[in-house]
Amino acid sequence: MKVLNIANIRIDGGTQARVALNQDVVKDYAEKMRDGEKFPEVTVFFDGSDYWLADGYHRYFATKSNSTVSIECEVKNGTLDDAILFAFGANSKRGLTMSAEDNRNVIYAMLRHPEWKLWSNAAIAKHVGVSRMTVGRVKATLDLKDEDTTKKYKDKHGNESTIQTKNLKDKKKKTTKPDVSSADLDPFVEYEEKIRELTDTIIEQDKENQILRDQIALGQWDASDIEKIDVQDTISDLREQIRILDIDNKAMRESRDMFQNRNAELMRSLKTAQNKLKKLEATV
What b/e readout covers 30-61, taking b as 16+ CB neighbours within 10 angstroms? Predict the structure, then answer.
């Protein structure tokens, strides 16, 4: 931890992930600070010259509104880009809940960045704290002439390379047979594709709905912001534990079904053998 003069902390580098600050929260924080309540330190990135605020804008402005000249900081070494990337993911793990507009703002910024736009939808979703479907929907609304044509990937040796996805799409188009009518295709293949797509959509939307339900419940709870943050972290941990337990239970059910099927087969084989034995005994 390091105590910095507020005047030495820069906030003009695009590290604010939210569309706008909640002034009511700033006032509430300021009052609690005047009453002596202790808040977590803000996070800043030092690039060798400037300190960039990456997390804690409400705490920063609350401190400033109280005419306090210094603030406790967690200082990380890194560039302005490092600070921005950290800011884009900070509120998905703790802090005040990001609105849908805030999340869209962050996703737009990442999709326009020369490096982060090469990330997969899943990677962006995990960093921001949203679903892949949300990233996909935001990406679909973009009208960028410099559409992503490259993707990063790592081989089995850990070497990073890039590939031109446009070339892959072109090759895919060339291998498609345009003269084949839909009547010649197996309709069940098309149905299966649609079912898989709808299933993925339902799963992702269910996750989003659960997150929103948790956020609404926390918002209605009469507690301090610090308590809400702790509970939100606990809920996230429990959700993850439930997900892992569901996977384990599914594996156990599959094993149980397999052993039951084998047992049934053995019982049928035993019954067949007993019937053959009876027939042999009758002929003797």
Answer: bebbeeeeebebbbbbbbeeebbbbbbbbbbb
Strands (E), 38-179: 42-46, 51-55, 70-77, 150-154, 160-164
Q: Which of the pair, 278 or 249, is modelled with greater confidence? A: 278
Beta carbons of 25 and 74 less than 8 angstroms apart: no
Closest by CA to 21, choosing from 29, 32, 10, 13, is 29
Rounded alpha-carbon distances, angstroms, from residue 73 to 14, 40, 110, 209: 19, 9, 26, 35
Place of tokens 């306090």: 68
Of 256 and 118, the structure prediction assigns the larger pLDDT to 118
Assigned token pair, 164 = 């031109």
DSSP code at position 118: G
- Give the global pTM: 0.53
Which stretches of 91-173 are assigned E, i.e. beta strand?
A: 150-154, 160-164
Side by side, the strands of the sheet bearing 70-77 are 2-5, 70-77, 42-46, 51-55, 9-10
Rounded Cα distance, 180 and 178, in Å:
6
Residues 6+ apart with CB under 8 A from 150: 118, 162, 163, 164, 165
Tokens 């990380």, residue located? 76
